Amino acid sequence: MNIDPVFGADRYARYANLRADAPVERIKTPPGTPGPAELWLVSRHDDVVAALHDARLHLEQPPQYQFGIRTLLNTDPPDHTRLRRVVSGLFTRKRIQSLRIAVQAIADDLIDHLPAGETIDFIERFAVPLPITVICQMLGIPADDWRLFREWTPKIFNTDEESVTTRPAAVAQLIQYMGGLVRTKRDHPADDVTTTVIQNGKDVLSEQELLSTLMLLLIAGHETTVNLLGNGLLALIQHPDQLELLRSDPARTPDAVEELLRYDSPVSHATIRYASEDLTIAGVRIAAGEGLLLALGSANHDPALVSEADDLNVQRNGNQHLAFGQGLHYCLGAPLARLEGQLAFDTLLRRSSEISLAVEPKELQWRISPLMRGLHALPIQLSSIAPAELAATA
């Protein structure tokens, strides 16, 4: 089986077939994907959860697959513990909640500039600039530079032919940019995340680890939220009863965001794990050194997790989805993604009276990526947009 554009559009039906007939299946990765050409795809919820906690599965890449960038995403303890300790205090729930007013102002400003009655690309006009502006402000990066990062990050994550060709240059440009940022903050410390990481990482991180950590914060700080907003809005448009239920009762928004994370997870597969020894999953033998993709999106649609798992239900509570992973590598930025998602959907539904898809669903194009689940574009129309002051009192 291949990860291809069809798999991107119709992955949940194919996941269901895998869970039923081949819960651990050999797959081919797209050409140009860093790592092995073939991996084991694990699709059942209980197997995925067990694998996320299995100490025999390592994130450290075997030497033949390494390409030089070591981050929290591909290291194991004790290095992972050391790296995470440097940044663990930056994304606490209390600290993220202190950003609420700033994130709300960004969301309102973006909506103020959306034209009612015209077709717009929601990804370009809202889903991208919201989290990029937030993370740029946190890192002390000029917000005007967000377009650079939106140009570079898809080339790093996507595996289409063009991205594979341009990936080395994008990585080099991002490293160069972050190096310049570090030099600036060392000379002129500020009240921002970059300065804090530099200070916390002194005598703890190598220069390469410092740059990689900041790069990860920048990329992970916006890329997954872009997909949450795009995938989530599409899901709501395609389920108008759920959209109107949420619009009529904004108090449901936190539960709705959890359901949107489960229903169409921004990260479809966890970072590749490698078996440190021979092991067996669901009766299938995995040889030492072989790689596994843990299908978070499939696990989130497994009836073993929730009943009516293929239905979108914004009233679902107690949602134990795996969109942020689990265990040692649980997503550090989960509180930030939740805050941005809640404010984005609340503001969008509160200030717009009707949201419709401007193309046929079959025309939408999904990114080709073994890890990310997201749209290239989401053309929509907003019938009307209320001023922020009126919407706040409605």
UniProtKB/TrEMBL annotation:
CDD domains: CYP107-like. It holds the Pfam family p450. The keyword Magnesium does not apply. InterPro entries: Cyt_P450, Cyt_P450_B, Cyt_P450_CS, Cyt_P450_sf. Coiled coil: none annotated. Keywords: Heme, Iron, Metal-binding, Monooxygenase, Oxidoreductase. SUPFAM superfamilies: Cytochrome P450. Belongs to the cytochrome P450 family. PANTHER family: CYTOCHROME P450 YJIB-RELATED, P450, PUTATIVE (EUROFUNG)-RELATED. This is Cytochrome P450. It comes from Fodinicola feengrottensis.
